[in-house]
Specification:
The protein is mainly alpha-helical and 125 residues long. 46% of the residues lie in helices and 0% in strands. It has 5 helices and no strands. The longest helix is centred in the N-terminal third of the chain and has 14 residues. It is flat. The chain starts with 8 loop residues before the first helix and ends in a 6-residue tail after the last helix.
Amino acid sequence: MARIVQRSPAWLTNTITLYNTQGPDGLADRRPGRSHHPFLLNEIQREALDLRLQSPPDDDGKWTSQKVADWIEATLGQPVHVTTGWNYLRRLTYTVQQPRPRHPQAATAEQQEAYKKKSRRSSTT
């Protein structure tokens, strides 16, 4: 069985023992730093953030992690890390809406086409 789940026999024995003694709660992630703290924002505050994110920010730019963190900080009255802003953007299913910048030395369309023509190999079938 351990080979099927690609784990050691000791891991499998320990997991089964935890499950048999503590049920599904015994399988919780016990690694350090993985404590599941409650959300900073309650449900009403999350809905307010979601509603706020549907309109442009005060500077008429785009919503960023920092701007969301600033909004949460103003709402809660306590400092909030920029990562928290990112987490709430992701939790509310918002995605990055800005394309990645183009490399300044990227080839032009003509150069790319010339490379494609030059790099074609002849078939030896």
